[in-house]
Amino acid sequence: MEAVQKTPEREAFYRRIDGENLAALWNVMGELITPEPKSACRPHLWKFDAIRRFMTEAGKLITAKEAERRVLVLENPGLRGQSKITTSLFAGVQMVIPGDIAPAHRHSQSALRFVLEGRGAHTSVDGERTLMEPGDFVITPSMTWHDHGNETSEPMFWLDGLDIPLVQFLDASFAEGSDEDQQQITRPAGDSFARYGHNLLPVDQKRASKTSPIFNYPYHYTREALEQAKTRDQWDACHGLKLKFSNPETGDYAMPTIGTFIQLLPKGFKTARYRSTDATVFAAIEGKGRSRIGDQTFEWGPRDLFVVPSWQWVTHEADEDSVLFSFSDRPVQQKLDLFREDRGNA
Ligand code: 1HN
Question: Does residue 162 have its Cβ closer than 6 Å to ligand 1?
């Protein structure tokens, strides 16, 4: 759409209607309705080692209790100051050190954790505590009470993903703190996985929540699923072997607003180019390689984090067997009939 010419009469008209809280669509239409996604979000990679150093400093500056959550926000370089890694999603790295208690609270924003380093620290969600290991994918559903702690001797680091910008856009934020730092534990560890993680469901129970009743998807099982499939040699040209975490009750994504994925790229594999409308956050958990996003190349190794904006071409190349976790707003886009992908010619 071409810009409309300016004339003195038109300019005067715009000034007059401006005073009445009116504006001419023909001056802004091209910015509103673009032929392709036009995002301020930029590709970027954060090296985990650098984040760990800053987090270790932060650990001396502030307790988890005072901070509420000791998180360094991954700010997209094109969206600075907005606490966004993509237009619709928040990401941060959280550190929980021995003795920390990140106090109980709840909010309408959904959260995911993907464990990067450390072993045996815990999070509690709605009365159940789970111990976490690297590669575990843990969910805090909307409005569920959650608190974290670490009774081990090592710090734990995880990637936090939340739908904060999406909820902000919809003006639907609710949050509250608890009088108790740690919530009462009412169910044994492993309860939700035992009930829902074995292809069995209660015969009559209907839950209202759209979020998976499994709140820790342990890496042990995720990795086994990838390893089994690997031996069958069926590689997707664009994704290698890519699986989505699913809600066993519905078969839909594990979370209603955030899609989460795990992907194996075998040693030496180079993907065909791919683009999609869901800007995606990646965390490498095993292996090393590089991703080309638009015209930039990013080298990654274990625990490094990177972001691919909407509709930018991406290819991945693995030097070793590599595992990538990723998340995006794909469930939202698909439900609204807005999701598009382009596999090049693959
Ligand atoms: C939050 O509640 C957590 O519970 C992590 O661990 C990151 C970022 C913004 C707002 C709330 C958590 C968060 C957050």
Answer: yes
